[in-house]
Each structure stands twice: as structure tokens, then as C-alpha cells.
Amino acid sequence: MKNASLKRKIILVVMLPMISFLTLFGYQIYNSMETLSETKQVQAKVAFIAKASSLVHETQKERGATAGFLSGGVSLDALKRQRSIVNDQIKIVSAGITQSMFSTEYQKQLVKTLKIYKKIRVQVEGKSVTAGQAIGTYTGIIKTFLQLNLDVANNTELALISAELRAFKILEDAKESGGKLRANISSILSKDLPINDNMLRKIITLKSDIISNISSSGLLLDENSQTIVAEFKTSPEWLKVSSVFMKILKKSAEGLYGENPSKFFQTITTSLNILGELVLVEKAHILKDVAAEQEKVAKQLWSFVTLLIVMTIFLVTVIFILVKSVNLSLSKIVELLGVTSTQISSVAGVIAKSSVDLAEATNEQASGLQETVSSIDEISAMVAKNSDAAQSSKSVSLKSQNASTTGKDRVSEMLLAIQDISDSNGEVMEQMRESNREFTQIVQVISQIGEKTKVINDIVFQTKLLSFNASVEAARAGEHGKGFAVVAEEVGNLATMSGKAATEISSMLDESIKKVEKIVDDTKVKVERLVEKGKDKLDDGKDKGEKCDAALDEILENVSSVNEMVGEIAYASNEQSQGVQEITKAMAQLDQVTQQNSSIAQQASSHATQLSGHVGELEQAVLRLSGVIHGGGSAMAVTNRVKTVVNSPNSTQQVPLVSSEASVQQDKVIAAVPSQDDARFEEI
Predict the structure, then answer these.
(1) pLDDT tens, position by position, 532-591
(2) How is 450-472 classified by DSSP, letter by letter?
(3) For residue range 8-66, what is the model confidence (pLDDT) as tens digits?
(4) Separation between Cα atoms, residue 520 and residue 200, nearest integer Å
(5) Which of 278, 269, 177, 179 shows the shortest CA–CA distance to 228?
(6) What is the DSSP letter of 598?
């Protein structure tokens, strides 16, 4: 610990405990914030459970009334009154879903459950479901809302709230069993018929569940709640329910129970209302405990934050005091550095004289650099020219690329135009098929004309035959030619039929002629339109081809320009090669001068060895300073402090940092340094 740096001392003494302290309290604050957030979520969920509990209570009544309605024991008006109460609770629950802080999927499931009410009610009013099916549907709805208690209890780390929610679920299960018992017994009494073994076992199980749940050791009931449980067990209404229950057990095989379903419904409802009162009491307890838990966590969080602020202020104060004490040690070490620096100054004068000799050699080196810079300038001009040519080549190449793209687009447009022509030909073919179908209709009309012609031929034949018979009869009858009147009349009828058929034939022929003329005219117009359209498409395709040809010509011109640019680049490269040869000669001269500089540098190295002895003493002081503070102050601040100590009137030696002779020699060295133009060689 004694030899450790100041940085490590601060880390070991203050920073590490401080970091550990901040980490610990940060973790505690984080846990408190997480617990506070969870408490708020649980409070929102418990508030929603309280609303859902009221809906469950009224839904249980609607379930019982529905069972009685389907069995004939409850009127539709009574059922609708109960539904109205349930609807009010549904609105409250529906409005609270988005504020319940359940997950989105869970909220969707709750909304979906609320929609079941409307569907089952329609089925009940239409009596398209049995009492058992309706009870099962309502039971499913109630089960969904009762499951909220266990879901919240299983997902919270608040032990007290979790236990209370589980106890609340047991109490709700007891009340739910009572609601199921009310619905089933109301249905049994309304039908007044024998019941099977399954129903018998069901109502026995439900009644047993009521007693076992309200007597469960998992219930966290205070003295007031226990009094309510005792009141429920000994209430006249519950005793009456038990009496009716026993009567049903005895007469289950016969029926005819002799009980009024509506009266029983009211009795058991009054009894279950006592359990409902207990549910309200326990619900209030849970809400109160959640609020108390939230307040407790909030106080704990503020305690941690306050303590963190106080401890941080304390630790910062300790660090300030520690750093102030270290400053005294630093002052003594700086004084030691000032004394050592005077000894280094005397040796620096000798080194400065050697630097003058080195500067003369550097002048020769500078002249060689001048020649090198001239060659470099020429090379630079050539490079710039090459760069310009390359840039122009790039621009032309880009134009070539754009022209190629344009040519490709023009070819694509030409292909589309050809495709349009193909489509037009398809339309022509389709029109020809349509014309063929219309000509087929004409053939059918002509066939009908042929049928009518056959009728006329038959009439003509019969007319001739009758005429012949009339001639024969006239010859035979003489004066008794009355019979020929009939024949003559028949001949007249046949003539009428012939005239009518002839008229129909004439009409049909006229119609056929008009249809044929119309078909011919329409076909002619459509074909001319399609031909004209095809001509336009071909003209468009020709135009696109001409544009494509022009784009390709432009590409060829650009390629020629690129070739010329490449020729210029090649010429410039040749010039650059000659410039490089000149640089090689200049570098050979620089090598000779460098040999001389090496000899002078050996002399400077001898003096530097003497200087290193004094530097060793300075390093010891620096090590002591580094041991106290590693990088704690800037170099400028230390230098200023040394000057103050060495040049002060109380100092044992007042020696300038650099002698006057050394200062003059340094000016010569600076003059020998190449100018700004020469420095460009180093950049290149």
C-alpha cells in the first residue's frame, strides 16, 4: 500500500468501497423499483378482480334464472331483469380491461369471454339449448373470471397478496358451487321429474364443495369473517335449502317434489348473498393490503435513495481531503527536480555545439533535396494530368453506361410493342370466332325455314288430293253435290294455312337477311379497327427501334473518346518514368551526405552518455513523483514549477536552463532547417 501509486491508493481506499457501496444500493434501489412496479400492477389487477367478482355474482344469478326459464319455472321478464343487472356489470368490467395491466393476449381472451353473453342469451330465448348446456356455458364464463385470482397469485412475488388471492379463490369457489347448486336444483324443481344418478351425484358434490371450501384451512379469515361464515351455516335460508336438498335425494327416483322453483330460487339466493357479503369483505381486505404494500415499498425506496445521497456526499469529502494531503508531498519532489535540471543544462551546451556541426552537413543535404523537389514537381504535374485524364475517362465511361442503359430500355419498349401487336392478332382471331358463332345462328334460322317449307308442301299435296276428290264427287253426284261443300271448306282451310305459313317464311327470311347484313357490317368495322390498331403498334415498334439505333451510335462515339484518353494516360506515364530516374540520382548524393552526418552523430552520442548520468538522478526523482501520483499533473505545470524553484532568490544556484552560447547555436540550427517548400519532399 505504501509503494502504490496515488491512483491505486484512491481506488483501493475510496473508489472500490464507493463502487461496492453504490452497486449495493443501486441493486437495492433497482429491486425496490421493480417491487414498486409489480405492486402497482398487482393493485391494478386486484382492482379488476374486484370488478370481475361483482360480475360473477350477478352472472351466477342469471345462470340460475336461465335454468329455471328453460325448465318452465321462471318467467322471461324475471330473466330479463336479472340480465339488465348483469349488463351494468359487463360495462364496468369491459371498461376496466384496458386498465387491468394484463397482457394483450389475456385482455383479448377477456373480451372474447364477454362476447359469449350475447350468443348464449339468443339461444336461451329461442330455447335452442337445454338447461344443462346453458348452465355449462355460464359456468365456463364464470370459471374464466375466477381463474384471474390464481393467475395473479402465481405471477406475483408478494407473498401476502398471493396467499390472500388464493384464499379469495377458495371463497369464490364455494360461492360458485352454491350458484351451480341453485341452477341445477331450480331446473330439477321446475321439471318436477325423476333425476338420474349423474345429476344426483352432481348436486351432492356441489353441496359438499360449499361446506368444504368455507371450512378450508387455506382461508385467511379474521374474526368478523368467521362470524359471517357461522351466520351462513346457521341461517334459516341455508337450512331450508338443505331441507329441499334432502327431499330431492329421497324422491329422486319418483319426482313430484312439491316445491315452488321460484320460491326456492329466492331462498338459496338470499343464503348465497351472505357468502357474497363475505366475498366483499375479503375483497376489501385484499385491496387494503395491496395499497399498504405499495406504500411500504415506496417508503423503502425513498429511504434507500436518501441514504445513497448522504453516503455519496461523505465519500466525496473524504476524497477531497486525501488529494489535498498528497499535494504537500508533490511540492517537495518538484523542488528536487529543479536542482537536478541545472546540472543537465551545462551538459546541454556541449550538445548544442555538436548540433552546429550537424547543421552544416544538413545544408549540403538540403541542396540535394532542392533537386529532388524539382523532379517531384514535374512528377506531380504529370500525375495531375493523368488524374484529369482518368477523371475524363470516368465521365465518358459513365455516359457510355447511361447510353447502354437507354438502349436496353428502348429494346425493352420495342419488345412490349411487339407483344401488343401479338395481343391485337389474338383479338382478331377472337372476333373471327365470334363471327363464326353468329353465322351458326343464321344456319339454325335457315333450318327452321326448311321445316316451315315442309309444312307448306304437305298442305299443297293435301289440297291437290282434295281437289281431285272434289272433281270425282262432282261428277258422280250431279244435283246432290252438297257433300262437296264440306270438301270445298276443307280446301279453303288448307289454303289459309298455306298463306299463313308463307307469311311466316317471308318474315323469317327478312329477319335472317337483316342479321346477316348486321353481322357482316360489324365484322368489317371491328376488323378494320384491329388492323388500324396493329398498324399503330408496328409504327410504334419501328420508332423504338430507331431510338435504340441512335443510342448504340452514341455508345460507339463514347468508346472512341475513352480510347483517346487512354493514349494520353500512357504518354504521361512515360514522362513520369524519366522523372523517377532523376530522383534516383539525387538520392545517391543524399547518401554521401548522410555518411558525414553519421560521424558527427557519434560525437553527439558521447556527450549524450554524460548527460544520461545526470538524467538517472532526474529519473529517480520522477519515479518518486510517479510513485505518489501516476499521471496526476500535466507536463507544462511541472516545468513552470521547476523554473520558479531554480530562479528564485532563495535558490542555492541560479543557472539559466540554456546558456547564451547554446542559444546562438540553436538559432543556427533552426536557420539550417529546410524551408516549407523543402518540407514537401517529406510529405510526398
Answers:
(1) 777 777 677 767 767 777 776 777 677 667 667 766 765 666 676 666 567 667 666 666
(2) HHHHHHHHHHHHHHHHHHHHHHH
(3) 666 666 666 667 767 776 776 776 777 777 778 888 888 888 888 889 989 988 988 89
(4) 89
(5) 278
(6) H
Amino acid letter, 675: S
Q: What are phi and psi of 482, to 5 degrees?
A: -65, -30
Using one digit for the tens of pLDDT, what is the confidence trace for 91-123?
999 998 888 888 889 889 999 999 999 999 999
Distance CA 442, CA 527 (A): 20
Q: How many CA atoms lie within 13 A of 287 on its CB side?
A: 12
> What is the rounded CA–CA span in Å between residue 562 and residue 397?
7
196 in a structural domain: no
The whole-angstrom separation of Cα 333 and Cα 622 is 8
Rounded to whole angstroms, how far apart are CA atoms 595 and 477?
A: 170
- Does residue 65 sit within a domain? no
Number of domains making up the chain: 1
Q: What is the DSSP letter of 656?
A: -
- The angle, 0 to 180 degrees and rounded to 10, between the axes of the packed helices 223-234 and 261-477 is 60
What's the CA gap between 337 and 74, in Å, rounded?
A: 109
Domain of 543 in residue numbering reads as 380-584
Q: What is the mean pLDDT of residues 241-259?
A: 89
Residue at 620 is within a domain: no
Contact 183, 67 (CB under 8 A): yes
Q: H helices of 629-656, where? A: 635-646
CB 92 within 8 A of CB 83: no
Residue whose grid cell is 517531384: 376
What's the predicted TM-score (pTM) here? Answer: 0.44
Neighbours of 59 (CB within 10 A): 25
The rounded distance, in Å, linking the Cα atoms of 314 and 312 is 5
Q: What is the mean pLDDT of residues 292-319?
A: 75
Sign of the dihedral defined by the CA atoms of residues 355, 356, 357, 362, in that order:
positive
Average pLDDT, the chain: 75
Q: Which amino acid is at 509?
A: L
The DSSP call for residue 260 is -
What three-state secondary structure class fits 658? coil
Cell triple for residue 152?
395473479
**Residue 401 domain-assigned?**
yes
Residue 436: CATH number of its domain: 1.10.287
Question: Do 435 and 525 touch, CB atoms closer than 8 A?
Answer: no
What does the angle CA 202 – CA 205 – CA 208 come to, to the nearest 5 degrees? 150
Among 192-201, 400-409, 626-635, name the one with the lowest average pLDDT: 626-635
